[in-house]
Design a protein that fits this description.
With 477 residues, the chain is an all-alpha fold. It has 16 helices and 3 strands. Helices cover 63% and strands 3% of the residues. The chain is globular. The C terminus is likely disordered.
Length: 477
């Protein structure tokens, strides 16, 4: 019986590439142990973060390439939960590819293999989130001025909660539950899905807000426990971001009104995204000064949340200042600034999405400096949607092709076709901003409609790519 050697196993695992960084898991230092005793292959993998949602997908990819080796049938891949990654685990090849050392010639393209198992039980959670997205987009366009019929008129009044809590909150909870790999972790997204359906069916009752508040508490307990076990800056920020979601949900549940909850919902998304990007700054060795800068930015966000929830009629200048500062920090420290000029394919697409989103985050901050209050009006529309559409949906576009395969266990083939909805999103949002600021009502209407079309077009492109059959390339004997 042929048995693969240690070098055979490592060569096979080099075909498994981190989809955002574009560097293989061996060079990144994610392979902790290779055990070939008893004629069987057993590999232990770690992730850069204990809650990394891509972990299960990379685990499937590693198992697939190992089982294609002669004698590799029955290979097992274990995902370690007590693994602690640091930049010194990377070899020189990884450092060169990430621009930490002189840049080598581009490596050959690596084909991502199809996942081995589709996780159908997670599908209802994603369905709840996606239905909330569709309802939220529909309600938002009616609210904007498109005279369309809508199943429930009350949806127009809860456009914000549908998008932020039912869609984004549930999606983030699913992502974290997958990353942690614990069954109890799916309680939070399960509550989020119940909240989403309740909100759609009974928008004028408190049942939906109650479920969604419970979902935010469940996610906080999950991430708070992670922060206690692994007290890193990014894990603490993830828990803090979820605490902001609890604050906004609690105000909404208690009838304080959406304008008072809004700053906390914005802080929830901003801090969560900052925490996720902070984890990846370890690939670019950030200075202590840059980490202190982020702490100050988060402090500004929290202070603005307290001030605006007390009186949302005051000028949100502090919130705007915090967005400008966060945008500057992301441009300065995020590894995306290194990847965009050095990688191709999915890593470059992700980096382009992120950098475009950071532009809109800063633009939203500038608009908030001039906004008199968090109330209706063209400037209010521009400030909010440059944040939620320009910044947040850029993050979704950039990470959906990485996260969804891990959540569902189904590969998505990247192609340049994904740049089409991305470009249309930013073009239509620019038209919407011009319509708000000039003001020109037809531009505002057409830009808003374009935003919705771009988002739906992106997910349609993703579904088409997921259903495309790709034959894996056999490993060399």
């Amino acid at each position: 019986m042929i048995s693969p050697s240690d070098s055979d196993v490592r060569d096979a695992l080099r075909r498994v590439v981190d989809p955002e960084l574009g560097v293989n898991i061996v060079d990144l230092g994610l392979v902790e142990r290779i055990d070939l005793s008893g004629g069987k292959v057993h590999v232990s993998l770690g992730m850069t973060s204990p809650a990394c949602p891509v972990g299960p997908y990379l685990q499937d990819q590693a198992k697939a390439v190992l089982q294609m080796l002669p004698g590799g049938q029955g290979a097992e891949v274990e995902l370690l939960r007590d693994f602690h990654w640091s930049p010194d685990r990377m070899n020189e090849a990884a450092r060169r590819e990430l621009g930490i050392a002189p840049v080598p010639p581009p490596p050959p393209a690596v084909q991502i293999l199809p996942a081995q198992k589709v996780h159908w039980r997670r599908l209802p959670l994603l369905v709840a989130a996606m239905i909330s997205l569709l309802a939220g987009l529909w309600a938002g366009l009616v609210r904007l001025g498109w005279h369309w019929s809508i199943p429930k008129a009350d949806w127009v009044l809860i456009h914000g909660p549908l998008m932020v809590c039912a869609f984004l909150g549930t999606l983030i909870a699913v992502e974290r539950a997958v990353g942690l790999g614990e069954r109890s972790g799916f309680i939070a997204p399960g509550l989020g899905a119940l909240g989403a359906f309740s909100l759609l069916a009974l928008p004028s009752l408190f049942i939906g807000p109650l479920f969604l508040t419970a979902a935010s508490v469940g996610l906080f307990l999950l991430l708070g426990n992670l922060a206690l076990k692994n007290p890193s800056a990014d894990s603490i920020l993830l828990a803090l971001g979820t605490a902001c979601w609890i604050g906004g949900n609690a105000l909404w549940l208690l009838g304080a009104g959406i304008p008072k909850a809004l700053p906390w919902w914005m802080a929830f998304l901003a801090v969560t995204i900052a925490a996720e990007r902070l984890e990846l700054t370890r690939f670019s060795t950030p200075s202590a000064t840059s980490q202190k800068m982020l702490v100050n930015v988060v402090a500004l966000l929290l202070a603005s949340g307290f001030l605006l929830s007390a009186n949302y009629q005051q000028r949100p200048w502090l919130l705007g200042l915090s967005f400008i500062a966060l945008s500057a920090w992301l441009f300065r420290c995020d590894v995306a600034t290194r990847i965009v000029g050095k990688k191709t394919g999915l890593p470059r697409f992700t980096a382009v999405c992120l950098l475009a989103g950071y532009v809109w985050l800063g633009f939203s901050g500038v608009l908030l400096l001039f906004l008199q209050a968090l109330s209706a009006g063209p400037l209010y529309d521009a400030a909010l949607h440059s944040f939620f559409v320009g910044f947040v949906f850029s993050m979704i576009f950039g990470h959906a092709l990485i996260i969804f395969p891990s959540v569902l266990g189904k590969s998505i083939d990247f192609s340049k076709a994904f740049y089409v909805p991305l470009g249309f999103l930013h073009l239509s949002l620019t038209l919407r901003m011009l319509g708000d600021l000039l003001p020109l009502w037809p531009l505002r209407l057409s830009g808003g409609l374009g935003n919705g079309i771009a988002i739906l077009f992106f997910f349609a492109t993703m579904i088409r790519a997921a259903n495309k059959k790709t034959a894996p390339t056999p490993a060399k004997a």
